[in-house]
Amino acid sequence: MSESFFLEAEDPLVAALERARSLSQIPAAEPAAVDAAYASVLDLVASDDAALWSTLAAEHVSLLRSAGFLSAAATRCGQYLASERAVVRLPLLLERAQVRSEAGSHACAAADAAEIRQIAGAELDSVDHARLRRVEGLAAVERDAAMRYLTESRDVFQSLGDAASAAVVEADLRLLAARDGSEQATADILAEPEPNPAPADATEPATSIPRALTRALALRNQYRYEEALHVILTALASDHLDDALRLPVLEELVVLLVALGRGKALKALSGVLETLLRPGGSVEGTEPPAQRFSRTLLNAVRLVDDGEVGQARADLDAVRELAASDRERAYWHLVSGEVAVAAVKRRKGEGHFAETVADLVAASELAEANQLLEVRIRALRLLGEAYELMKLPDLASERWAAAHALEEDLVARQLSDEVRATLLEDIPNEHDERIRVAAELARSGPGGAHAAAAVAATIVAMESARGAAILGRVAPDAERQLRRLPPPTDGAAAWAWLRTIADATRRDEAVWIMHARPHRVHHGIVGRDLVHHVDVPADRSKLEKLVKELRKQCNEIRLSQPEGRAQVCRLIDQLAAEIGVETVLGLVPRRVKRLVVVAGGVLSDLPLAALPITNGDEERVPILCRFALSDLPCLSIRPLLHQRSEANRGSRSLLVSAFDGADDPTRKARRRKVLTKATPEDFERELARTPYRRVRILGHGQSDTGDATGTWLQFASTKTERDGRIPPNRFQKAALNACGTLILGACESGMAQRVGRDERTGFVRAGLHAGAASVVAARWVAEVSITAALLDRFEDYLRYLPRDVALQRAQLDIRDGRVALAADIPEPGHPAWWACWTLYGDSGHQVGAPILRASARVPVHVLRHLSRPARQTE
Q1: Distance between CA atoms of 95 and 105, rounded to whole angstroms?
Q2: How far is Cα 185 from Cα 179, in angstroms, rounded to an integer?
Q3: pTM of the predicted model, to two decimals?
């Protein structure tokens, strides 16, 4: 559809046209300069030569479009079509259709194509027909029609010898196949040279922004989100990014930020997106259907956050028919399911779930078929939430676990360790989700008994998140019965279960259960006439970093330096503030003096005894000053360990030392069996020969939280040092089934490796496996003289106090300077020296009649004094 015109060489129009065409060929030319040059050409066209004006106007728009200046092309095309001089409209309509198609406004482009075919009929030449077929192919809703139109367009260009245009359509076909999940098409796209939308050299041509979007999609197909994000950020930084393509680039950026868990960046971007998606914000001053669809979905999510669920539903229903592809339908069903779940929560968990489940299943299936991993993950998580609200916990766990597995696969495909670590920390598992749902229902539900049941359901969800594989080793026959937790959605059953826990606590005792989700920490307090649930904002990844830094600082070299001890105090203060200790323990009545802690994940690594709180006179003191603490892997194990403790009471004691007689810190010990310079075989034989109620091991230890083979206790050896090491898997076979209290007086004996469902392997777990009712161990490197003094005091107090109170008194003696140390320790009351020691397991008494023993201590001493023979005098 082209015409020929004859112009005189000296005509100013010729010179102006040559300048404009030359300028348009410069790679770094400014859109405004090219636009102005062509505008000056059209100003020179005679007013009565409408055909020449229309042809040059179409050429003007075509060159702007070819150079990637889509906004300028759309603006000029609209102006020219509105002009009275546009006598020949067909070339301009064809250009407008192509501009709209390349800007992503396919519905408008399809309308233009239909108008052109109605006007031109059979008069379209082969080139224009091929161009129009490409527009129709990119706009087609049905995949088969799209493939057919694009293939026809490519074949026509090839038959005309236009290899460049044929290659462009071939790239469209690859993109279409990649969107359908074709691995070959994805590989072909990634085999092309990497796009360079922002060249350093201004004279170097920039790779088109559409190519960058295509490569980002191919990388996303392979779940290489980090690399895709780099491509999109480079495109955003490009001076060649046209306003008409800014929205598609930002939409891709949103998808990647969601997938990579960049919540703060996403929040900062929301204002820009709302501006771009506002009606009238398109390049042509009208809102295309695709833009209205995207705007409505984004606005629906915002309405849900604002609590306007009804308006969100009405808006979504109004644009359902605008979803022009399976990808768009996947997004619509996802947002629709999210709105439905929010509506059910507002009705306190009551409602019709059929449509909710149908929406989310459809979103998941469409996402899987269209390589929309981020949509599929979100749909599975929401589906799990819906099943949880429907009181189908098994189905909920299956969906949450499936989402978690997909996210872990996604993490493995990223490049940098930093991104992988951040993603892993931010991925909620099915327990995080169950706790979140229960907590949200507890916050939004009615008061009274319903509120208490909702809180109980949240605490049950927290208990279900704790690793329970240890139960089978402690009491195999009781494992199933004790771990049969009520579903968190059954408030009445959860409350009944919680009452049994509360009834089992002493009046001066409470249970403190904790769970860290990626961005919140949940606390439950349970005791006699006492139930609370509190959740506070907290960054789990920050907690991990603080704990790691604390361990790094707690070594003898750093603790010998004032700045090292000061840094430990700062880290302890930060940990206390991060998990909201002051808020939580402020709910505990003054009658409670003992806390049984059940914590998982990073929270189980916190030195809780050292965290500061405010006591009655507004003084900041460690938790230790108000509460005696003990630690359990899960609440369900408590009655089992208590039964074991009752059976293993007594005072028969064994001390096993890896040191020889001269170096033995306990060489003055009396009234117990002592093995010095003991080998692993000596230790094992002695335990097999005689049942001991209390066993204390002195030696060196090492723990590697990432590698179980690097964890051992060092005993004496007759050959090499390595022969004297006992790893946890050997230690758990020791005959400790008669032991009530196992004292591991070695560095890092309380550290563990986390595996599986919040299970923790190490010497504490090995001791409980071997039969001990309780274990005392150190979380980090312990100074030798303080270790000896603290554990001696602990054993003294153990004769008449419960284990947790005995350890509390021993630690307070060190803190308050009531113990003479064998070595000169700088600032011996500093928490880094004593807060590493923790009691794991049963917190009850070690001896059979502790009250009698306590009351008899003074009379016995008096009797001994009186029974001494009188000194002879002259």
Answers
A1: 13
A2: 9
A3: 0.65
